[in-house]
Design goal:
By secondary structure, the chain is of the alpha+beta class. It has a domain of 169 residues: Hotdog Thioesterase (Thiol Ester Dehydrase, Chain A). It has eight helices and five strands.
Length: 289
């Protein structure tokens, strides 16, 4: 038997049913992993008031903007930070090699560390040491053979490794001294071609009261031909070669006799130095000061 509740009670009952239907729809969608949304009111059911619509819309908007469980972030947001780091690293590397002599600043320390940590110590100061190399495309000039300046660079790297293995660089550091390249000469006998393997064979020829004298031979590994011969004078600052050798060998060591061609080259350097001093109006002690 139906009971007449009156217009007011009937409207209240319809509103309660609408709210119950709304809650049932939200709970069902949440259990399925989707964002909550309002069920459209049925026929005869009143719409919720404006405040309720506003709250539900805000919650649905926030839910839709946040990632669902198991859903990945957008690729643009994930890659933004790594891409910016890679771009910064590439810019620094480009500036390093464009503004500085990058390969030289990398190779010389690597050669010294390799000679100090990975290679055995050489006790004989006059022993020959070898450094392997290969002609790369960056070493070529317009005639498609190894650029003459590359010989000097390869000899510089081999000389640093040689002085490290025989202990001269360590003795210089312990005495608070250092050595600088004061003179060099090169004789080119045959070109080194692209991808041709070679060895830089370095040895200490001797020393005097001011400098060490070293030789570097570029030997082709295809036929053993000496393609270039370089001589260099390493001037010692803050000490003397005799003191360095004595500190290294723990006794006084007489320098070996220098080759005749090397003595001629030393005499040429002395004559050239005297001529330049005379042209500049300087005396012998000005250079050392």
């Amino acid at each position: 038997m139906e009971v007449d509740l009156g217009p007011g009670l009937a409207q209240e009952r319809i509103r309660e049913r609408a709210l119950e239907g709304e809650r049932d729809g939200v709970i069902k969608e949440s259990a399925q992993g989707g964002p909550p949304h309002r069920r459209s009111p049925g026929r005869g059911e009143p719409r919720l008031h404006a405040q309720h619509d506003s709250d539900q819309g805000t919650r649905a908007q926030v839910w839709s903007q946040s990632p669902r469980a198991g859903q990945e972030m957008p690729r643009s947001a994930c890659c933004k930070a790594p891409c910016s780091s890679q771009s910064r690293f590439l810019a620094l590397a480009l500036a390093f090699f464009a503004l500085l002599d990058g390969w030289y600043l990398v190779r010389v320390p690597c050669a010294v560390l390799r000679a100090r940590l990975l290679q055995p110590r050489v006790r004989d100061l006059l022993a020959e040491q070898c450094l392997a190399g290969r002609v790369l495309p960056s070493d070529l000039d317009l005639l498609l053979h190894m650029n003459n300046a590359r010989y000097l660079r390869e000899a510089d790297v081999a000389r640093a490794a040689h002085l490290t293995r025989c202990g001269v660089l360590g003795a210089l550091r312990e005495l608070g001294a250092h050595a600088v390249l004061a003179a060099s000469c090169a004789r080119y006998r045959r070109s080194l071609r692209l991808f041709e393997p070679f060895e830089v064979r370095t040895r200490l020829l001797g020393w005097d009261n001011r400098a060490f004298y070293l030789e570097a031979r570029f030997v082709s590994l295809r036929d053993g031909f000496v393609c270039a011969l370089l001589r260099s004078r390493q001037h010692v600052l803050g000490s003397s070669p005799e003191r360095v050798v004595q500190h290294l060998c723990k006794r006084r060591v007489e320098p070996p006799e220098l080759p005749e061609d090397l003595r001629h080259w030393i005499a040429y350097n002395e004559a050239s130095s005297q001529l330049l001093r005379a042209e500049s109006g300087l005396h012998d002690g000005t250079k050392d000061q």
